[in-house]
Each structure stands twice: as structure tokens, then as C-alpha cells.
Amino acid sequence: MLYEARCLSCSRHNQLRANFLNIASSIAMAGAFAVVVTLTGHAQSPPVTQHTPRPATLPALDRLPDPNKQMEMKKTQTQEQFFTAANAERKRQLDSDSALLLRLAVALKAQVTDADKSPTSSDAFLAIDGIEKLAHAVKEKMKLTVSAK
Description:
Blueprint (H helix, E strand, L loop, with lengths): L1 H8 L1 H34 L14 H4 L4 H48 L7 H22 L6
Helix pairs in contact: 4-5
């Protein structure tokens, strides 16, 4: 204790102790300043915006299908084009057959009205038979539709 009292009374030790206290108080002030700056800095900075998540994209949409799938798709597309062309041809044939049926029916009606006074000839019966067959064929073509299914 005597040594401590004598050491503390020494001017050199007093100066070191004063320097130490100055440094300690400077560090404490710097720390307090840093805390204040940090707190006020966060208060003044704009709020952090949340990024809205983008919808997940499906991997199948981002890449090309494999070669087998591409070949199947091409085959299906070709079949659909073929079926569309076949249906267009069927409709064209229906139109022409229906027009022919109408002409034959009008011609038969005119023949029967002219021959009203005389008995019906065998030509009229042949025309009736042809009209019946054509009407039946038109009816069957109307039912038929070519499709991929």
C-alpha cells in the first residue's frame, strides 16, 4: 500500500493515468457517437423494399421439347392438316352432289308433269333409281367427318 501511494503520487504516473483516462473517455465518446450515428442513419435511410417474388416458370416452357416429342408434334400437325383438307374436299363433294341431285329432281319433275297424260316410261324409273342412290350417298357423306380422334 505504501508503494502504491508513493507510485500514485509520482508525477509520471499521474500523467500516464491522465492520458489513460483521456483515451478511455475518447473511446467511450467515439462509441457513443457511432451508436447515435448508426441509429439516426437507420431512421433516415429509406425502408428496405421487399422484392415481390416472380412466378416460377415451368421448365417445359423455357426449353424446346426433345426430338421425339418434336417429331410427334410434327406428325400430329401434319395429320390435322390432312384431316382439314379431307373435310374440305368432302364438303366440296357434298355441294356438287347436292347441286346434281337438285338438277336431276327438277328434270324428273318436268318429265313427269309433261308425261302426265301418258304412262311413266322406263327412263323415269331409271332416273328415280339414280336420284335415290345419289340421295343415299349424300346422306352418308353428311354423317362422315374425318378427324384425328
